[in-house]
């Protein structure tokens, strides 16, 4: 736990609460307002008394005025399902610290905030093809995490993840959108460097009704490459090669290309009402979590 | 623009190879990256932002192709053709005379001439050929006709200037022989133009291109030197030197007289422009030695600032008079200074030990080998057609001959005389209408004066001219006088007699080097011709040693002002060439440009990949 998040940061996170723009549709009890009626302190509506109703919820003041029995209905507080999509593909192993490390720290922070808010956390790690049995177990455990007490185990399982294989971001998101029983918050943590693109995956999440936050993590060497010359670049995921002649004098052109790519993703998100962050894996985690995400009202 | 080596254009075949290499074998560093997606975006970005991306992308290739093209062009050796026509054969004649050592052109005229000649060698094209001739003391073919530039350069580099006067005639004769029947051939002469004795080429229409070398004519030089003994005081010498100023301004000079490197006298003289100043020194001499006159003046030519002569003390002339009795002759001989006279009735053996033998009407059985005055006696070997004349009339006598100086024979009568047509080796002194009554000359190594009539059968002994003639004869026959001429002009052969056949002779040059000379058997004369350097030579043969001096002493050579026209004679000459010296080769410029392109390419390569 200490390896992922510092105690100080954990304390700061405990004071935060995930903000949901929609009412929870979950069936499990929690602390989120929902459309369901049940037991809480929040008054919702009245209905006619029918035989068998609990007398405790009768509105006696109304009976005094109208001589009719009305039952007071209260909002049922339900949990908020928080789904975290964590990219553990090979490309996430780059950077110092690696992009995966940064992403799992963010996932840990979001999970911790959710668990502290009695919300259910579900982490979907993609790609799915994994050989290591302990990681398979960890992934299975991460599927459904509930309660504050589960936080240490949650952190531990996150820490066992290892990057491997190509991302297949679209298929992972589409599949998750199909499988999801209830909607809620969705956080996608990836570098989005998938040759197949990201559009259909994100579109599936939006269509399913997830309130989605997109966090793009890029390595410093992707933001500003420090290697020059006649290069044959090999894609870590696909093995594809690209021949490039690169020099300091062409850094600007590279940045323009990068900005165009990140800008494309940002525009896509903005057009669909998704929250979007692009962050370097070498950036300060505290600043990102406590300032940027707070400013964007992911939590507050 | 033409190409000297058009075959080198075949190297252009390497250009496609470079392009192929560029396409196939570009060495790249393999690097693992998270994704090539961003790089594809980068490439798309650079292509989108550069309208001439295709060109820019291959900029390095373009530079390399440019470099290669320059290299191929340089190898093909393009040149800007000179204004002159091409010629199949060029004979390069380098004037290697003393005046070419002048330093008015740095480092020297000869070096400048050689540099210009080397340029012509550089411009040699195709199968055209060149010959290199050095005209020093004698003309030497340094390189026969060849197209091999390396050999021509080597030959030119090996040429050095000598201390000799200009002798271009033999070199031009060689050149003329080489270019004969070749209509486009040319002779290129690199000289300062002071070349006498070219009259023979006046009407030959030589295809001569004269390249004038040199700038200034300011020079002081010793142009004459002589050494005379005082007749009354044998140990005193008069040294005469003539110093010429060939410059355009009067110049002071310090003249030193040295005897064997010991300074005897110095004198400062100022010589007007174009004037020659005679200088006379008196020298007391206790032993034989080398007398040197040295000139210290800041001028362009150093060779003519010094002249030396060997000065030998006089020794008595051993003279043998073989006579039946002739008081007139005896008295006349005895009157000659420094003469040791022996009178004998007949001559035995070859009169060894005598310098001069006088045979007076007493034909010997064996003729002596010493210098000879033969009166009314003859050797049949000397000539043919001997006869007797009764009362011959003296029709003419050669007053210009040193033997007849101050001698008048108009009142001499002869009763009877031997007469002979003057043999080819001799000059007739006294002529009768029928034949010669007296002659003088050198028969082999022997000086002979022959008088056909008996002195006592004429009235000549009673005339004033007789003792004068005898004194002249003694002077002429004196071998020491010949020895006193132990000086030759640079380039002239030195001859000396040897007591007998010589098998082993060595010469020590002024620079100290020693060389063994080849001698012809049964010859009693040594001829040494390698006198191209000024200074003191020592010739050793057997137990004898002869020293002699080689001097320039040439007023023509000291006049170093370069001539605008090479004169054959008063009427004909060749003007100095103003044509462009040679074809202008461009490969150096191409190579320099190639170097710049290479630097540019290197810079660009680094800028691109660092």
Describe the protein:
The complex is a heterodimer of chains A (300) and B (610). Chain A is of the alpha/beta class. Chain A contains ten helices and nine strands. In chain A, the strands form three sheets. A five-stranded parallel β-sheet of chain A has the order 4-3-5-6-9, with helices on both faces. In chain A, helix 3 packs antiparallel against helix 5. The longest helix of chain A is centred in the last third of the chain and has 21 residues. Chain A starts with 6 loop residues before the first helix and ends in a 5-residue tail after the last helix. The mean pLDDT of chain A is 86. Chain B has 610 residues and is α+β, with helices and mostly antiparallel strands. Chain B has an eight-stranded mixed β-sheet with strand order 17-16-18-19-25-24-23-21, covered by helices on one side. A five-stranded mixed β-sheet of chain B has the order 6-5-4-7-8, sandwiched between helices. In chain B, a hairpin with a 2-residue loop joins strand 24 and strand 25. At the A-B interface, strand 7, strand 8 and helix 9 of A face strand 2, helix 2 and helix 12 of B.
Write down the overall mean pLDDT of chain A: 86
Helix content of chain B: 10-25%
Number of domains in the coordinates of chain B? 4
Number of strands of chain A: 9
Relevant CATH superfamily of the largest domain in chain B = Class I glutamine amidotransferase (GATase) domain
Beta-strand percent range of chain B: 25-35%
Low-confidence stretches of chain A: none
């Amino acid at each position: 736990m200490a390896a992922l998040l510092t105690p100080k940061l954990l304390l700061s996170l405990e004071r935060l609460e995930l903000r949901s723009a929609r009412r929870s549709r979950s069936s499990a009890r929690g602390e989120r307002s929902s459309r369901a009626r049940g037991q809480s302190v929040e008054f919702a509506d009245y209905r006619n008394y029918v035989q068998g109703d609990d007398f405790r919820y009768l509105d006696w003041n109304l009976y005094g005025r109208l001589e009719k029995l009305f039952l007071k209905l209260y909002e049922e507080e339900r949990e908020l399902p928080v789904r975290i999509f964590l990219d553990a593909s090979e490309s996430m192993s780059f950077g110092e610290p690696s992009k995966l490390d940064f992403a799992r720290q963010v996932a840990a922070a979001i999970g911790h905030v959710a668990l502290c808010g009695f919300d259910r956390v579900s982490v979907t790690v993609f790609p799915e093809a994994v050989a290591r049995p302990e990681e398979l177990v960890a992934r299975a455990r991460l599927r459904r995490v509930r309660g504050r007490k589960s936080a240490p185990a949650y952190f531990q399982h996150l820490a066992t993840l290892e990057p491997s294989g190509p991302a297949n971001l679209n298929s992972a998101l589409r599949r998750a959108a199909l499988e999801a029983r209830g909607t809620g918050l969705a956080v996608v943590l990836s570098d989005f460097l998938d040759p197949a693109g990201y559009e259909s995956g994100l579109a599936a999440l939006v269509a399913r009704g997830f309130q989605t936050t997109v966090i793009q993590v890029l390595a410093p060497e992707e933001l500003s490459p420090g290697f020059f010359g006649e290069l044959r670049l090999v894609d870590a995921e696909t093995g594809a090669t690209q021949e490039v002649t690169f020099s300091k004098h062409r850094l600007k052109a590279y940045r323009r290309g990068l900005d165009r790519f990140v800008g494309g993703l940002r525009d896509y998100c903005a057009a669909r009402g998704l929250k979007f962050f692009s962050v370097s894996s070498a950036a300060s985690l505290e600043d990102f979590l406590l300032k940027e995400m707070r400013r964007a009202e992911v939590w507050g | 623009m033409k190409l000297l080596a058009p075959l080198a254009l075949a190297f252009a075949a390497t250009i496609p190879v470079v392009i192929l290499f560029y396409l196939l074998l570009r060495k790249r560093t393999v690097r693992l990256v998270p994704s090539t997606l961003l790089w594809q975006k980068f490439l798309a970005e650079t292509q989108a932002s550069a309208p001439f991306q295709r060109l820019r992308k291959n900029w390095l290739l373009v530079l390399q192709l440019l470099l290669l093209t320059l290299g191929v062009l340089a190898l093909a050796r393009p040149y800007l053709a000179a204004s002159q026509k091409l010629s199949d054969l060029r004979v390069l004649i380098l004037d290697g005379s003393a005046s070419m050592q002048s330093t008015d052109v740095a480092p020297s005229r000869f070096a400048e001439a050689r540099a210009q000649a080397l340029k012509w060698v550089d411009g040699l094209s195709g199968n055209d050929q060149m010959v290199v001739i050095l005209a020093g003391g004698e003309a030497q073919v340094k390189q026969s006709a060849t197209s091999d530039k390396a050999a021509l350069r080597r030959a030119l580099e090996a040429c050095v200037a000598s201390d000799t006067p200009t002798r271009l005639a033999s070199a031009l004769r060689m050149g003329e022989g080489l270019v004969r029947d070749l209509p486009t051939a040319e002779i290129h002469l690199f000289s300062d133009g002071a070349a006498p004795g070219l009259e023979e080429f006046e009407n030959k229409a030589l295809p001569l291109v004269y390249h004038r070398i040199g700038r200034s004519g300011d020079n002081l030089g010793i142009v004459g030197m002589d050494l005379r003994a005082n007749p009354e005081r044998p140990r005193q010498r008069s040294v005469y030197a003539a110093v010429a100023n060939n410059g355009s301004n009067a110049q002071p000079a310090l003249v030193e007289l040295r005897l064997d490197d010991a300074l005897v006298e110095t004198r400062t003289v100022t010589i007007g422009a174009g004037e020659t100043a005679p200088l006379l020194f008196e020298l007391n001499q206790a032993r034989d030695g080398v007398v040197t006159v040295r000139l210290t003046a800041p001028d362009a030519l150093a060779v003519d600032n010094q002249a030396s002569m060997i000065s030998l003390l006089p020794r008595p002339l051993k003279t043998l008079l073989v006579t039946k009795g002739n008081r007139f002759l005896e008295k006349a001989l005895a009157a000659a200074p420094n003469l040791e006279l022996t009178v004998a009735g007949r001559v035995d053996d070859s009169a060894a030990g005598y310098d001069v033998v006088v045979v007076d009407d007493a034909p010997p059985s064996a003729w002596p080998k010493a210098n000879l005055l033969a009166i009314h006696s003859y050797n049949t070997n000397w000539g043919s057609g001997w006869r007797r004349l009764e009362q011959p009339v003296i029709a003419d006598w050669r007053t210009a001959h040193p033997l007849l100086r101050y001698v008048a024979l108009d009142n001499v009568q002869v009763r009877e005389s031997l007469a002979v047509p003057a043999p080819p080796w001799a000059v007739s002194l006294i002529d009768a209408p029928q034949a010669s009554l007296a002659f003088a000359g050198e028969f082999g190594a022997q000086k002979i004066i022959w008088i056909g009539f008996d002195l006592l059968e004429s009235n000549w002994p009673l005339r004033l001219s007789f003792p004068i003639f005898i004194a002249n004869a003694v002077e002429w026959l004196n071998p020491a006088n010949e020895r006193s001429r132990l000086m030759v002009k640079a380039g002239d052969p030195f001859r000396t007699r040897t007591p007998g056949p010589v098998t082993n002779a060595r010469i020590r040059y002024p620079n100290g080097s020693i060389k063994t000379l080849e001698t012809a058997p049964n010859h009693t004369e040594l001829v040494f011709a390698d006198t191209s350097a000024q200074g003191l030579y020592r010739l050793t043969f057997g137990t004898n040693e002869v020293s002699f001096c080689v001097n320039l002493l040439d007023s023509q050579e000291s006049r170093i002002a370069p001539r605008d026209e090479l004169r054959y004679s008063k009427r004909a000459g060749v003007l100095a060439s103003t044509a462009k010296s040679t074809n202008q080769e461009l490969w150096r410029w191409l190579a320099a440009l190639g170097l710049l392109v290479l630097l540019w390419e290197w810079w660009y390569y680094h800028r691109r990949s660092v």
